[in-house]
Design goal:
With 228 residues, the protein is mainly α. The protein has helices at 3-14, 19-28, 39-51, 76-91, 99-105, 112-142, 152-175, 201-205, 211-227, and strands at 55-61, 69-74. Strands 1-2 form a two-stranded antiparallel sheet. The longest helix is centred in the middle third of the chain and has 31 residues, at 112-142. The radius of gyration is 25 Å and the shape is elongated. The model has no long low-confidence stretch (mean pLDDT 88).
């Protein structure tokens, strides 16, 4: 079940509604900070949920010259699926593979000054996101919205603040010369530094094995022994 499917089922748990109303509510509540919301993907998600009998249509209505709109209601099966999926996500952390750490791991391929400029731009965007999140928290608090409905906002703020702090510390370390960096030809962009400290295959072989991977490896070995 995708994040958008969870959001749709959660809306229908509140009350029956049509997809366009779902889209409007998701945007108005700023759920697009948590889930990628696009009209086309939302309509596709609702159709798929209906095919799985997690929601059902309750009829079609038309107002004026607007297109016909189908209202949907969550089913008992859909309610169970929603609760099970939420519980599964909360109980078990899994790798989500965000893109930023990938770029960090390959950042040494860029000149130092470019890296500093890009990181400072990122910090500016993070600070804008922090301000926007603080504004939403203040609005919810001012309008006495029960905190259980916006508990994700303090979590998002903590994540944004932690990243902004880390990036600022990285900028200071790099800009101050505490972190050695590659040298590049300003004309051609070709790397000119000649380091002998690159990551080697031998280094990779010495990496500690994560406990989960080690356990899986041991299980596979035992299975092989049983088969033989």
């Amino acid at each position: 079940m995708t994040p958008l499917a969870i959001a749709v089922l959660a809306l229908l748990e509140e009350r029956p509604m049509h997809p366009y109303e779902m889209y409007q509510l998701l945007i108005a509540r700023r759920e697009d900070k948590l889930v990628k919301v696009r009209p086309g993907s939302l309509y596709h998600t609702v159709t798929r949920l209906a095919d799985q009998e997690l929601v059902r249509s309750e009829g079609v209505d038309r107002a004026g010259n607007r297109p016909e709109r189908t209202t949907y209601r969550i089913t008992a099966r859909g309610r169970d699926a929603l609760r099970d999926r939420i519980a599964e996500i909360v109980r078990r952390p899994i790798p989500e593979y965000p893109r930023f750490p990938v770029a960090l791991g390959e950042l040494h391929n860029l000149p130092k000054q470019d890296v500093l400029a890009l990181l400072r731009e990122r910090v500016g965007r993070l600070e804008a996101e922090l301000a926007d999140t603080d504004m939403m928290v203040a609005w919810a608090d001012e309008h006495v919205v029960p905190r259980r409905y916006w508990i994700s906002l303090p979590f998002l703020r903590a994540m944004l603040a932690a990243e902004a702090t880390w990036v600022n510390e990285f900028i200071a370390e790099l800009d101050g010369g505490a972190l050695e960096w590659e040298d590049f030809d300003p004309e051609t962009g070709v790397r000119t530094s000649d380091h002998d400290d690159t990551w080697s295959d031998a280094d990779s072989a010495e990496l500690p094995v994560p406990r989960k991977a080690a356990a899986n490896s041991a299980t596979n070995i035992r299975s092989s022994e049983n088969l033989s």
